[in-house]
Structure formats: C-alpha cells, structure tokens
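Hi V.,

Quick status before I head out on leave. The structure for the redesign project is tokenized and pasted below; the design run finished overnight.
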C-alpha cells in the first residue's frame, strides 16, 4: 500500500446541517433517529437475530436457513442451508399483486421506448432461461454479459439467476481486450451481447468487439446476439446465435433452480492495486437480503415510485440498484441507454419530467458536469415529481451537494450520499432520508448492522476529526466471498491489514457527531469520472506498447472528473518523445482497456523517481502531476536529478 494514515490529512470543514423535511419523515419507512438507533442497537446486541429476521422478511425461502452466520474469519457463510432463487424473488413473488405494474421503463438514446410489466418481464426471463439451458448452460456455469443499457441486460442477469448460472457483466464501454481477459478468467461458457448500443449518437460496436476476442476465448461456446442498432443481424460463424431465434418457441415457464444461499450469483471484475482486475464473487442469499433492504430503506421506496438509478449494469451499482434491489421490492426501475447530454444538455431533466421520476440516484461526476453546464437546463423542466436524490461513486464535494439539493431537488428533496463498494455488495454508510440529518459532503452514519471503524495500521481507533483507514469490523450478509480463482488474493487484499477486519482501501474521518467523511482511496486505485480504475492496469497497458520502457500513472485532482489520469512514460532506447506518440499511446490505452482509462495527460521522462529499493515514488509523482511542491522526504530518491527533470517537463 502506498501511504500511511499520517498522510491522510483532512482539509474539509463543513458546518451546515439539514434535518429531514418533516413531511418526508412522516411518511418514511424510518421516521426518526430514534428508529435508526433502535435498529442499530438491536443489530449490535444480537447480530444473528437481527440478520435472521431481516432475511426472513426480505426474501422468499424455498427451504428455511438453519444457521444465520458461519464466520471463520475471513470466510463467511450466511443463511446456511437456506434455498432460494433471486429471479423468483424479483418476479414470480410479485405476479399476484403486480403483474401489470411496470417493472422496467426503458428509453433508448434515439428516443425509442419500451415498457415491461412484471408479467412481461417474467416471460422474457423464463424464455431466455430456457434458451440458455438449450445451449447447455447449467447451474454454476459462468455466463458473460456484454450489453448496452437495454432491458435485455436485466433479462440476461435474471435468466442466469433463474437457472443458477453465474453472470459476469462486462461494462459495454470496455474494449475487446478487457472483455477477453475477464471472460477467460471466469471461464465463461456463453456470452450475451448485442449488435451495438447507442452512445452520443454513435454505435458502440459490441458485437465487433466480441468477434475480435472470440478466437482468444476458448471457453466460450456460444455468443447470443440481441438486435439493437441494426435492422438485420449478420452473424459470422457457428458460435453466434441470434437472441430472438434462441428464445422463439421457448416455453414461458422455467422452474427456478432453488439454489443454496451460498451459491454464487455473480462475478464482477473490479480494479485493485495490481494490473489484473479482481473477480469479486457474490453469492445469493446474503447479497439479496442487503440489496433488497437497503433499496427500500435508503431510497425510502414506495409503491408508486418511478425510481431512476443512472448507473450502467456494468458496475455494481447497476447490479444492486438498477436491477436486483428495485425488482425485489416490486418497484418500477427506469433504464436509460445513452449519454447524459445527448442530444442536448437537458436530457436527464427531460427524462425526469416525462417519466415523472420520483427518485434520482447518480454520481458526483455527473452532478458536477451538469452544474458546469448551467442552471438553465434543469430550470426548463418540471422536476416537481422528484422527492429524493442519491449520490454514489466518489466523495461529493459540498458545492456539488448543495447544487444538487437546491437546483435539482429545489430544496425539497433529501440528499443521500451513499458509501459502498463492489466488494460490499450494497450500501454501507448512508443517511436514512426520513431520519438522518445530512451534512453536505458526508455519507453520515453506517446502516444498522454495519460496523464501520476508522483505525490506524496497528488497529487502534483514530481520534475523531483525524484521518485514518476505514475498516468494517464485523461480517455483513452482502460482503464478497472471495476473489474468483484467487482465494489467496481475497485474504491478502482485504484481511491482511488487520486480521478478521475488512479493509476498504479508503481513508476517512469521523466528526464530533460520529459522521463519516470519506477522503478517497489510500491505495493505487483512482476514481475517474465515477469509474473505478487501477493505475497499475493503465501502466501495464502502456508498457505493452512497443516503444514504452516504463510507465507510472497517478491521479491528479480534477474539477470535473474528480480525478484525472497523468501518465509518466519513459521510452525505450532509440525512441524520441513526440506529440504524435502521445496521441498514439493514449489511443493504445483506450484500445487495451477502454476510453475511460485514456490518460488525460502524458509526460515523457528520462527516468522515473525511485527509492533505493526500486519502488516508483508515486506520492512524489502525484505532487508533480498536481503542480505541488512535494512535502515528501526525497532522501531515498535514487537520483534527485530525475525529480528536477520531471518538474522542468511541466510545460
Ligand atoms: C458503489 C461503487 C468503490 C469506491 C470506494 C470509494 C468510492 C463510492 C462513495 C465513495 C466517497 C461515496 N463501487 N466511493 N461511493 N467515496 N463517498 N459515497 O462506487 O467498487 O466501483 O468503487 O468508490 O473510494 O472504495 S466501486
């Protein structure tokens, strides 16, 4: 790890407090801090009773569980011997009362629309589930999903869950190479994709990417292709099947596979501090309980809500808060395919007005971008349907929080800043909107049953107001179970700082009210425009280029993206820096990983600053990238001239 907690210096002071609006609290599931405190105490006193009760309330269990928690640190099993099915909980369970209620409202970027009721969604899911079975997909098999934000993405996930197959969604913005790496790691048998998706008026060539990767994905037997952007599909080769052909004639009925609670539900790749992304594995029962409960509590979900989470299903937020959480609650979830500002700066506000959305859950980077575009765009629209606003993905700066509250929420809507991770599966630290007074920039308090603590490296509590490392000190149902195919890495990454305590990789502090203020990552993971990236991934993409000898990538604070990527590159002998080469390298990274990883700035260096033991001094580079005089002790620098040269390179 890169830093010690002494280096986590908090600079934020924020004194504003906003109590929940009274009218909101009166109708809320949780109405007061007394409600919160009661639940928190209950959970702390007897966690197994608390989680057992929640699990029985949230889910239909075909077979009841006998043991709530089997905890052999750092390995947890939840709701042992229980059997359930997540597609059943998202669909069948609602059919008696919500058959004709919209489950999914979809709007494509080109303005096409679809509505799927719970009854219709169940049919689509069952047909695809049967179709997958006909391709030989069995319980436990891995299925890749590489789709745009269209209803088929949710159908695909649910069809996998229905038959006990393990889905691994790859963000549609990732490249063929990134897809290939993930599919090979997971050993996917089938990939579900589309001919393309719409983004900023252009087609994202998903099928082309799959076809490019296919010769190098030996485990993939079939590719199922949905039609989205073209009139007819042209399918090359015997491995490709059209989605509509596959599901045509399949039965509407598919008996759910009643899986054990600990049966794997999905693998989702996420960046860590090495070049290889980690396959975070989530299982069924525990994940479902927390996803369902937090969706209802944090968004204070009500029957008539039109709920819009803008995340892509390629990220965990799309899993828990576009698909599983809302559908388990029988809610109406809105899915929008395209870019936030296409064809114009007011697309989001236009959508909210037309669908009368009541809840909006989005990322600070989007909020900052809208803020910069100007108030006139939201002001053109009737946003009075909104009653709650959420934020996720990175720390939200108080200015953006205030703008969100005042301009989008018109001062009427509580703002919930929700802290969580791919690994936690569901929201961990967040206001409960009818109960918790909020402070701009703070995720406030851990949810009942969540034991978040700020500790130093020795495990000592850090005094209030002082920065430290954020740990979760007790297991919770939706925690990741392992890193797929690399159980050692699970232990090393998350449980080796302090044995038995989950290390989040984030720095944080608490204030005198015990509120949590997240301060960003303390490892080499950066958050670029709300997307989590490992700097090492970008580095390994750069050094894969024939002319690059060595690369170090660091984050630099950026008003819009939160963090921008700066790459320091040394070239191999005989190659000279040039503007063209910069362009070529940026393009190369986009091809290797995806456009989101394209460095914002590339600086050529004669050498990189290193310690005597040969470690690149990233903190120093971060200071250089940010244009700061370094506070870092440079006595271990291999060559002080290197630093001087890097600074000169500033122009
Ligand atoms: C849900 C998600 C996780 C990392 C996490 C943090 C950062 C997320 C917040 C936040 C401050 C927040 N999963 N993060 N939410 N930081 N306040 N409300 O984003 O796995 O992709 O990223 O994102 O650093 O460790 S993720």
């Amino acid at each position: 790890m890169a830093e010690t907690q002494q280096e986590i210096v908090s600079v934020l002071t924020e004194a504003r407090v906003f109590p929940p609006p009274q009218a909101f609290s009166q109708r809320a599931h949780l109405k007061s801090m007394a409600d919160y405190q009661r639940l928190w105490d209950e959970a702390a006193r007897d966690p197994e009773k608390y989680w057992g009760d929640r699990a029985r309330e949230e889910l239909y269990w075909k077979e009841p569980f006998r043991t709530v928690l089997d905890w052999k640190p750092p390995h947890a099993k939840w709701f042992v011997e229980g059997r359930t099915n997540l597609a059943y909980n998202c669909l069948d369970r609602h059919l008696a009362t919500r058959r004709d209620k919209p489950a999914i409202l979809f709007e494509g970027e080109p303005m096409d629309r679809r509505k799927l009721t719970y009854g219709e969604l169940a049919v689509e899911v069952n047909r695809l589930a049967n179709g997958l079975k006909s391709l030989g997909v069995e319980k436990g098999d891995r299925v890749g999903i590489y789709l745009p934000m269209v209803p088929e993405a949710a159908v695909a996930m649910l069809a996998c869950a229905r038959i006990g197959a393990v889905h691994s969604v790859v963000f549609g913005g990732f490249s063929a190479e990134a897809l290939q790496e993930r599919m090979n790691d997971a050993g996917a048998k089938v990939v579900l994709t589309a001919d393309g998706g719409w983004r900023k008026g252009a087609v994202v060539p998903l099928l082309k990417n799959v076809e490019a990767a296919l010769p190098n994905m030996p485990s993939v037997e079939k590719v199922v292709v949905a039609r989205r952007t073209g009139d007819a599909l042209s399918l090359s080769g015997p491995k490709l099947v059209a989605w509509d052909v596959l599901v045509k004639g399949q039965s509407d009925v598919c008996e759910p596979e009643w899986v054990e609670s600990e049966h794997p539900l999905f693998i989702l790749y996420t960046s860590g501090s090495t070049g290889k992304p980690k396959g975070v594995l989530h299982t069924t029962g525990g994940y479902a309980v927390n996803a369902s409960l937090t969706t209802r509590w944090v968004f204070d979900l009500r029957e008539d809500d039109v709920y819009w989470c803008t995340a892509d299903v390629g990220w965990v937020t799309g899993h828990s808060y576009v698909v599983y959480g809302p559908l388990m609650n029988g809610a109406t979830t809105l899915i929008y395919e395209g870019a936030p500002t296409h064809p114009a700066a007011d697309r989001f506000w236009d959508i909210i007005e037309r669908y009368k959305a009541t809840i909006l859950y989005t990322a600070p980077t989007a909020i900052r971008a809208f803020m910069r575009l100007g108030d006139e765009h939201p002001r053109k629209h009737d946003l009075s349907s909104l009653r709650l606003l959420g934020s996720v993905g990175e720390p939200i700066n108080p200015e953006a929080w205030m703008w969100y509250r005042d301009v989008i929420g018109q001062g009427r809507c509580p703002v919930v800043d929700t802290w969580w991770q791919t690994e936690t599966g569901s929201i961990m630290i967040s206001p409960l909107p009818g109960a918790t007074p909020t402070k701009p920039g703070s995720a406030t308090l851990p949810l009942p049953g969540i034991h978040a603590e700020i500790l130093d490296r020795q495990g000592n509590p850090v005094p209030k107001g002082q920065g430290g490392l954020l740990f979760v000190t007790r297991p919770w149902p939706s925690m990741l179970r392992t890193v797929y195919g690399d159980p050692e890495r699970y232990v090393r990454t998350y449980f080796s700082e302090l044995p038995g305590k989950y290390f989040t990789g984030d720095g944080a502090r608490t204030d005198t009210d015990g509120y949590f203020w997240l301060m960003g990552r303390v490892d080499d993971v950066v958050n670029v425009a709300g997307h989590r990236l490992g700097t090492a991934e970008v580095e390994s993409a750069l050094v894969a280029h024939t002319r690059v000898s060595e690369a170090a990538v660091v984050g630099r604070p950026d008003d819009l993206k939160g963090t921008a990527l700066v790459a320091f590159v040394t070239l191999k002998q005989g190659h000279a820096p040039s503007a063209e080469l910069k362009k070529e390298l940026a393009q190369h990274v986009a091809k290797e990983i995806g456009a989101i990883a394209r460095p914002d700035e590339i600086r050529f260096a004669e050498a990189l600053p290193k310690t005597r033991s040969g470690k690149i001094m990233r903190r120093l580079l971060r200071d250089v990238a940010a244009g700061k005089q370094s506070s870092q002790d440079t006595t271990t620098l291999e060559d002080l001239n290197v630093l001087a040269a890097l600074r000169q390179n500033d122009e």
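Above is the designed sequence. The radius of gyration is 24 Å.

G. will cover questions while I'm gone.

Best,
W.
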